[in-house]
């Protein structure tokens, strides 16, 4: 039995991870903010500690005694890059600093994102050794968080996981793709290019995180320096040093459907004989994103679909290879992507989300 701290435990992925840890028999502590809804975590019987990754002092008692820290806390929408950086970079630095201050620091599994690396290049899935080139403010902030974490890698055992799109029971983001297919049999596609996506079912992500904690390679901190945050090329540079990406892992299903094929697969998962895929001109996508952004600013809450997300949609394919995770961790998905989409569709219907 291990003592575990989970940040971001009130989120979609965090709740699934906390449940898996409790079922495994670990002693689980979850960091919660004052405004967090914790009903689901309370049912699991985990220990709740009040704190915030942006409040450095609140993290020291939270990490005390932990053998492993799963760092999932992060911001996915914000009005400006500075808002993202406050949580995704500075919050990560605060957490690693608190871990490094302990006489025996815990293992830290930092959950980043494929957005930190950027879209696929040359039609090939991203691999850990590829140079990071994020295209969105969110992606730049997640890459900045990776760099901030790496600066403590000489003192804290650190592994960085970069998931793609995560879906499954309880997820509301991918639900928005399911809704028009379920109601009207229509799937809107951004642009006319045939772009491809990597996805991952949440339970398969959780199994990968547990394996990364138990047997993953740890990040090395040698020969690293950072490109300024404002640059479109923000990444950690270690030219010619293959150890620069040691301790990084992509996790994804083997299948990488086009956006149109994803809609058709979801349609089949929902029992539809046919799904009509409708390409949308990119100017319309940009206009919709800008309008959504404006509405979000008027109500004081960033919209889920915004100009930053439109940048990612316009950037091309977002695929990654999980070969390193398979080789080094012994990780694999328990079922294929179509079967996992069916499980998700069934859950949405049982819970009357569709």
Descriptive labels:
40% helix, 354 residues, two-stranded parallel ribbon, 2 domains, alpha/beta, Rossmann fold
Give an overview of the whole structure.
The structure is a single chain. By secondary structure, the chain is of the alpha/beta class. Helix 5 packs parallel to helix 6, helix 9 crosses helix 13 (about 335-350) and helix 10 runs antiparallel to helix 11 (about 305-315). It has 13 helices and 13 strands. Mean pLDDT is about 90; it is low at about 225-240. The protein has two domains: about 5-170 and about 200-255 and about 320-335, NAD(P)-binding Rossmann-like Domain (Rossmann fold, 3-Layer(aba) Sandwich), CATH 3.40.50; about 175-195 and about 255-315, no CATH class.
Q: What does the secondary structure layout of this molecule look like, with pairings?
A:
Layout: E1 3-7, H1 12-24, E2 27-32, H2 39-44, E3 47-50, H3 56-63, E4 68-71, H4 81-88, H5 90-100, E5 107-111, H6 137-150, E6 158-162, E7 165-167, H7 175-184, E8 186-190, E9 199-201, H8 202-215, E10 225-226, E11 236-237, E12 248-250, H9 259-269, E13 276-280, H10 282-299, H11 307-314, H12 323-329, H13 337-350
Parallel strand pairs: 1-2, 1-4, 2-3, 4-5, 5-6, 6-12, 7-9, 8-13
Antiparallel strand pairs: 10-11
Helix pairs in contact: 3-5, 4-6, 5-6, 9-13, 10-11
């Amino acid at each position: 039995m291990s003592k575990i701290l989970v940040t971001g435990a009130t989120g979609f992925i965090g709740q699934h991870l906390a449940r898996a840890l409790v079922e495994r028999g670990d002693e689980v502590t979850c960091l919660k903010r004052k405004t967090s809804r914790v009903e689901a975590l309370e049912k699991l019987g985990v220990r709740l500690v009040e704190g915030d990754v942006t409040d450095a002092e609140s993290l020291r008692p939270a990490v005390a005694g932990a053998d492993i820290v799963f760092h999932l806390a992060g911001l996915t929408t914000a009005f400006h890059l500075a808002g993202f950086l406050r949580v995704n970079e500075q919050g990560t630095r605060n957490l690693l600093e608190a871990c490094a201050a302990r006489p025996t620091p815990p293992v830290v599994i930092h959950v980043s994102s494929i957005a930190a690396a950027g879209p696929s290049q040359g039609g090939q899935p991203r691999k850990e050794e590829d140079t990071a080139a994020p295209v969105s403010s969110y992606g730049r902030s997640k890459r900045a968080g990776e760099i901030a974490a790496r600066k403590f890698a000489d003192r804290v055992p650190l592994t960085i996981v970069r998931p793609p799109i995560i879906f499954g029971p309880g997820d509301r983001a991918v639900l928005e793709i399911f809704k028009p297919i379920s109601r009207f049999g229509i799937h809107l596609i951004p642009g006319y290019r045939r772009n491809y996506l990597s996805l991952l079912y949440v339970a398969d992500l959780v199994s990968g995180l547990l394996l990364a904690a138990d047997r993953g390679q740890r990040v090395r901190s040698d020969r690293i320096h950072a490109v300024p945050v404002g640059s479109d090329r923000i990444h950690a540079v270690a030219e010619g040093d293959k150890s620069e990406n040691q301790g990084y892992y992509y996790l994804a299903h083997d299948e990488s459907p086009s956006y149109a094929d994803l809609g058709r697969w979801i349609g089949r998962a929902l029992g539809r004989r046919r799904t009509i895929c409708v390409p949308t001109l990119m100017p319309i996508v940009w206009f919709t994103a800008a309008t959504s952004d404006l509405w979000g600013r008027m109500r004081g809450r960033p919209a889920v679909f915004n100009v930053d997300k439109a940048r990612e949609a316009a950037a091309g394919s977002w695929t990654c290879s999980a070969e390193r995770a398979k080789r080094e961790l012994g990780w694999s998905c328990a079922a294929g992507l179509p079967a996992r989409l069916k499980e998700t569709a069934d859950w949405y219907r049982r819970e009357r989300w569709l």
